[in-house]
Amino acid sequence: MQMGQLIVFTGPSGVGKGTLLRSLLESHPELELSISVTTRAPREGEIEGRHYYFVNREQFQGLIATGQLLEWAEFAGNCYGTPRTPVEEMIAQGKLVVLEIELEGARQVRETFPGALQLFILPPSPEELERRIRVRGQDSEEAIARRLHRAQVEIAAADEFDIVIVNDDFDRALEAIEMALFAPVS
Ligand SMILES: Nc1nc2c(ncn2[C@@H]2O[C@H](COP(=O)(O)OP(=O)(O)O)[C@@H](O)[C@H]2O)c(=O)[nH]1
Ligand SMILES: Nc1ncnc2c1ncn2[C@@H]1O[C@H](COP(=O)(O)OP(=O)(O)O)[C@@H](O)[C@H]1O
Fold first, then answer.
1. What's the average model confidence in pLDDT over 33-62?
2. Per-residue pLDDT tens digits for 69-99
3. How many whole angstroms from its chain centre is CA 90?
4. How many Å lie between the centroid of ligand 1 and the Cα of residue 155?
5. Alpha carbon of 28 to ligand 1 centroid (Å)
6. Residue limits of the Guanylate kinase-like domain (predicted)?
7. Which of 8, 61, 176, 179 is the most buried (most CB within 10 A)?
8. 12 is in an annotated binding site
9. How confident is the model at residue 184 (pLDDT cuts 50, 70, 90)?
10. E-only strand ranges, the chain
11. Number of CB atoms found within 10 A of residue 90's CB
């Protein structure tokens, strides 16, 4: 059986990762999205087990202690991690598994899964990034400030990634991602 592959999607909060991925998953059923665990409170409309598994800090610590997370990191005051078993099972089944994770997690995956393809999504400008976070209207002022501060660090690390795509025009960014994932390597 052919082994699957891990695909890492990273980029500053608000750049459009979630929106791009939703579109990509709709047209590519061979892609599977890993559902992360987080200590962040659910946003309006977020569903347990679909957007995240929502846990408290103690439960999260338990997952770390028992080796159940493939990677994890703290971001803007909350913990986020990738459950190990589902990802390993999907890879064994030959699936293309997408991890939508922040920079520290991507760095861990680079060590543990050097064969993973790592994509970084950039905003057209810092101003547009801030506009998108605000338009989304889901975060407090404090959460927005933390995300924008962290965005500078993440953007500065973009060239660590295999492929960097600017999410300016949405359809063009989507096309560039599809090329990166599915175009045959010559
Ligand atoms: N390391 C790591 N980062 C994650 C994981 N799940 C989500 N993230 C990242 O955590 C950051 C915050 O996510 P979230 O609170 O949903 O905010 P948003 O990116 O502003 O929508 C984003 O950069 C996500 O990519 C995970 O399992 N591991
Ligand atoms: N290319 C784009 N042009 C304009 N707005 C966009 C574009 N891509 C995404 N957005 C919008 O930006 C906001 C943040 O997108 P989201 O997918 O939640 O970001 P992330 O998952 O990276 O935090 C959403 O309101 C989304 O509709």
1. 97
2. 999 999 999 999 999 999 999 999 999 999 9
3. 17
4. 15
5. 22
6. 4-182
7. 8
8. yes
9. low
10. 5-10, 31-33, 37-38, 53-54, 69-75, 78-83, 96-100, 117-122, 163-166
11. 18
Torsion sign (Cα): 178, 105, 82, 149: negative
Pairing mode, strands 117-122 and 31-33: unpaired
Q: What is the number of the ligand 2 atom nearest to the C-alpha of 135?
A: 25
Q: What percent of the chain has pLDDT over 90?
A: 90
Domain boundaries, the chain: 5-182
Position 138 pLDDT exceeds 90: no
Q: Is 13 annotated as a binding residue?
A: yes
For 32-140, where are the alpha helices, taking DSSP H only? Answer: 57-65, 84-92, 103-112, 126-136
Which residue ranges have their beta carbon within 6 Å of ligand 2? 11, 13-19, 132, 135-136, 167, 170, 173
Q: What is the mean pLDDT of the chain?
A: 94
CATH of 5-182, one of 3.30.365.10, 1.10.357.140, 3.40.50.2000, 3.40.50.300: 3.40.50.300
Query: Cα separation of 157 and 137, whole Å?
Result: 27
75 in Cβ contact with 102 (< 8 Å): yes
Maximum Cα interatomic distance, the chain, rounded to a whole number of Å: 49
Model pLDDT, residue 1: 39
Q: Report CA(120)–ligand 1 centroid distance (Å).
A: 13
